[in-house]
Specification:
Length: 443
């Protein structure tokens, strides 16, 4: 079996010498590793050692695909629930938290999302050092307990405490789900990231329907216990299937943020901040346009956006393995900009069917940024550093993105910028049109 052969230069053997400059080699048989062998430690180019925990093949086999299923299971009740948690806010305003303003209630949701990304950096470093088991097990317990507490909460501070705990534990779960993909996939990393992040879009669809049905047909405690059972089922599946392939045994300090000394990583992190800001703008403006076209209930509009986001994460993810993740990111950026300029700004306020088309296309474009960004980060680092790179990137992105989201949620800045840009672009005599027009006509 040629897979068990190791090539050794003859110059390294004491009894033989090379007879020509072509450096002939001797072939020796490598002993087969037993299944119970302890994890081996190999030296990496850095100051760390890498512990190889599994020798199963990458890009296929039970090990890789089972880990992918586990990562997707983590994304459904975390990222998926984040996209639909606004339904909680509407229900609270009508029931338990009626005396509180919408701004006060929105702080619960905002802090939940802010903590879920801010703490990705520390949890990413812990993932690289200790592996997922020591993170996902306590995080699953805390996250599940938080939503169990939500079922029996009735006051503002109780909801705030529960969602703070949920945000902290969600950071550990999502970082693990994305980082462990880099351990098990290489040539199919884009497709795997697309499937994993699609769990967020799929979770958005699932919880949109479940939350809408349960809050209308059951009392709050019963409805929340149903949510709790669904969350526990997905998280238990993730805990059972998620396992690492390599670990980093750090010789120096554990809290190493050396990734910020790489300009490629820093520049790409700021580009991800721009992508997230576009996503926040889309979320904030779609309900505004729904009121303009008198759509009424925006539930189905957000549902169409989530469906488009699901397709946007897996389809471009497949092509990242063919033409490269950075090339796909550029193409999807062009597609999203074209959707905004040609479809949204020009016809988004004309009819409801057009707005549904805008929602699907925007979901497809902005959803692709989630999977391609994670794939690009995987290309910028070694597998044993994936937790640090992905976690630190999303920690910075969340720190810069959520204040921007708060500004855009006010509506004043987004409305002013949209109206100004639309008027400047659509006026035939404007300088912007005169500059763009001849170039397009010349082509």
């Amino acid at each position: 079996d040629l897979t068990d052969l190791t090539y050794v230069p003859l110059s390294r053997l004491p009894s033989l010498r090379p007879v020509s400059h072509s450096s002939p080699v001797a072939i020796t048989r490598r002993p087969t590793l037993p299944q119970t062998q302890q994890p081996s430690t190999v030296h990496h180019a850095s100051n760390d050692q890498v512990k190889v925990l599994s020798r199963e093949p990458v890009d296929g086999g039970w090990g890789a695909w089972s880990v992918l299923v586990g990562s997707t299971a983590f994304m459904i009740p975390t990222f998926g629930l984040m996209t639909t948690v606004g339904i909680f806010q509407v229900y609270w305003k009508e029931n338990q938290l009626a005396p509180w303003s919408n701004t006060d209630i929105s702080w619960i949701i905002s802090i939940f999302g802010f903590l879920s990304v801010l703490l990705c950096g520390p949890f990413g470093i812990l993932f690289d050092t200790f592996g997922p088991r020591w993170l996902v097990t306590p995080a699953t317990i805390v996250y599940s307990a938080a939503f169990l507490g939500v079922a029996f909460s009735s006051q503002y501070w109780q909801f705030m405490v529960c969602f703070c705990a949920a945000g902290i534990s969600a950071a550990a779960l999502t970082t693990t789900a994305l980082a462990v993909i880099n351990h098990w996939f290489d040539d199919k990393k884009g497709l795997a990231m697309g499937i994993c992040t699609m769990g967020g879009g799929l979770g958005g669809v699932i919880f949109s329907v479940v939350l809408r049905f349960t809050t209308k047909n059951f009392e709050w405690t019963t409805a929340s216990l149903i949510h709790f059972a669904i969350i526990c089922a997905f998280l238990s599946l993730g805990c059972a299937l998620t396992r690492p392939r390599v670990l980093k045994a750090r010789k120096g300090k554990m809290w190493d943020f050396a990734c910020f000394r790489r300009w490629k990583f820093v520049l790409f992190t700021f580009s991800v901040c721009g992508f997230e800001l576009v996503l926040f703008v889309a979320w904030g403006l779609l309900p505004t346009y729904a009121r303009i076209v008198k759509l009424g209930d925006v539930f189905y509009l957000i549902l169409v956006f989530s469906v488009g986001s699901s397709f946007g994460r897996i389809v471009p993810g497949y092509f990242t393995d063919k033409i490269g993740p950075f090339n796909v990111t550029i193409l999807m950026t062009i597609f999203t900009e074209a959707t905004m300029l040609v479809l949204w700004l020009a016809f988004g306020d004309t009819s409801a069917p057009t707005l549904y088309a805008v929602a699907f296309c925007l979901g497809f474009g902005t959803g692709s940024f989630v999977s391609t960004a994670a794939t690009c980060l995987g290309r910028l680092c070694d597998p044993q550093d994936s937790g640090t790179y992905i976690g630190c990137c999303y920690a910075v992105t969340g720190s810069l993105g959520y204040p921007g989201e708060a500004l855009f949620q006010r509506g004043w800045l987004t409305t002013a910028l949209t109206i100004w840009f639309k008027e400047r672009l659509m006026q035939p005599s404007s300088k912007m049109t005169c500059r763009i027009g001849p170039k397009v006509a010349g082509r």
